[in-house]
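Aim 2 progress update. The chain analyzed this quarter is reproduced below.
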Amino acid sequence: MWKPLKLAPWLLAATAAWSVGFVYNAYVGGELSWLRGMYQQKMAIAAQVDSPQRLLIVGGSGAHYSVDSERLEQELGIPVINLGLDGPVGLNVILASIDEAIRPGDIVLLIPEDLIIIDDDGILERSTAFSVAVGKPAAGNIPPKQFAQDFWMMGIPTLRALTKSAVDLVEKGKLAGYYSDPVSDRGDPTATKSRTGKWWKWKVKQPITQHAIARISQFRDDIEAKGATLILSLPWLYASSDSQTIANVTKTAKAMEKIAPTVYDPQTLNLQTDSRLFADTHYHLKPEARIMRAKALAKQLKPVISQINAQSSH
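Predicted structure tokens:
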């Protein structure tokens, strides 16, 4: 009996340390905590906006930072809510996490960047942590072994994160993170990040995977059962026009078109050549470019929405 008793203080200390790390990561100052807060803000907005028809924008940060929802709302004449999250959350959890926001009559616009549709199982590095932080640990059907490993890591803050928090407290008087800025009343970002490194053109090295096709197809069936409709869109991307990129984006577009109506510029495949449109990543647009994107998107969406409404009236 003496050995377990001797180890007890160490186990209690380890448990306490892990718990403190978990609270920091998920609820106080870790990047996950800011992402959780942003998600909750967006879901609260979706709960408050009541209309027979709404447009819900879904995806990773390539959706969050790519559209001016207020301008798109003006162009379309229906409420637009930006529910874009973060690519590393993974396709499975992103789609599962916004399920409760969908109502009959809604149009769900999924804008998936290639990070989340070229993955073989739809589970990425933030899938477990995000699902736990937002209180939906079953979201995404994460394998038990991976879930256990990732959950354990939630209680271990990185030295880099702790150092950043300490610096923020000294310099700003508060904790801050990539997603710590509040969102607008339509879920759009209120701050623009700036790129510090040199630009280079992104290359799309593979098309959408079979898993992503199956998961998006299931998502379509799930929301249609709720009386909502799915539309897909290629994202705006600062990218190379090499033959591999063109071929892979074309394959992705054709695969998406078999799932649901898919909107994009058939001439450019939404591949952009002017880096001045972009903020800190190849998918994140500057505010003026988000307005440009909103105008182009509205023009593409109007005939599709008209057709949806015509079909629903019969």
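The chain has a mean pLDDT of 91. The chain has twelve helices and seven strands. These observations will guide the mutagenesis experiments scheduled for the next reporting period.
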